[in-house]
Amino acid sequence: MNKLLKTLTALSVASVFSLGVASCKNNSDGADESEPFSYEYSLNSEKDGYTLTGYSISSAAKSLADKNDYAALAELFNKSLGENETKYTAETVRTFTVPEKYNDLPVTKIASNAVVNLGYIDKVVVTAVVEEIGLGAFVGLTSLKEIELPFVGKSIYSGINYWNNEKEFGYIFGTSEATGLTSCAQVYNEGGESGDSTNYYIPTTLKKATVTGDNKKLDGKQTIKYKLVDGKRVKADDDETGEGIITEEFDAYSLAVQPYSFYGCSTLEEIELVGNCDVIYEYTFANCSALKTFAVPDGVTEIRKHAFDDCSALYSIDLKNVDKIGESAFEHCHALGASTLAGGSELTTKATVVGDYAFNGCNSLVSVKFENAAQIGRYAFKDCDKVKLVGTVSALVSGDETWKTDTDQE
Question: By residue range, what is the domain housing residue 289?
Answer without folding.
Answer: 277-410
